[in-house]
């Protein structure tokens, strides 16, 4: 099974380096988080992995596939799907229509193919519908399936966005701030879904999230960016005890930025 390798990636916009010589590894089956203050380069990294940006220098591979110069649809065909921070959903379409559309767009048959291989195309269509139904069950969206997405509560819309990515049957799921703007209850639900995606579906997860308590609770490994550079990596315990990380977030090495907003648990950070 493929691992994601990011090797010495630099991403430059004119004079600005959004990423400088960043390397990271995402082992199969793990939840790996990328954290850092605003403007640290987290979304730029997801954009490089998913083919929206191409690194100025360095290489990104997923198993045997080189992603460094691949377009987003090619990256998707390698088994990498992304749930976007700003939802990529059609607000006037129902949940089930959005999910079917996503699956069709990425796994479509052309008209000629459908005419020549009508039986195969209709079997594929039935399979797609069954697949989407399984995703709806898994993400507990049954009661919303026929509602236009734009009428749903924001937390449910975020869940539909993750479901949209899951309909592409990814091996690796990129989640860009899946809990942004959610209340505590909605965050609890999303945490449960992310853990189920990893444990029950066996999907590797790369997570960008500002709620550091949640990140520290559910990640196997954490990478920390600051001003486009990797300043730390390790287990949640290693990273949250790292004075450089604490300073990047607070400007002060004694403060404790990692309290869990979901459980309200005490801060785990004991600065050295
Ligand atoms: N298309 C672009 N053109 C020019 N500069 C960009 C572009 N995309 C990102 N940047 C710059 O790159 C830097 C990193 O931005 P990025 O969005 O990756 O940070 P981030 O860590 O995701 O921040 P946030 O947590 O606020 O979303 C910022 O200085 C940003 O302004």
TrEMBL record:
GO molecular function, one term: ATP binding
InterPro entries per the UniProt record, alphabetical: AAA+_ATPase, ABC_AA/LPS_Transport, ABC_transporter-like_ATP-bd, BCA_ABC_TP_C, P-loop_NTPase
Domain of life: Bacteria
Keywords, alphabetical: ATP-binding, Nucleotide-binding, Transport
SMART domains: AAA
CDD domains, A to Z: ABC_Mj1267_LivG_branched
Residues in ABC transporter domain copies: 4-252
Signal sequence segment: none
UniProt xrefs under PANTHER family: ABC TRANSPORTER ATP-BINDING PROTEIN (PTHR45772:SF1), CONSERVED COMPONENT OF ABC TRANSPORTER FOR NATURAL AMINO ACIDS-RELATED (PTHR45772)
Protein name according to UniProt: Branched-chain amino acid transport system ATP-binding protein
Species in which this protein is naturally found: Deinococcus enclensis
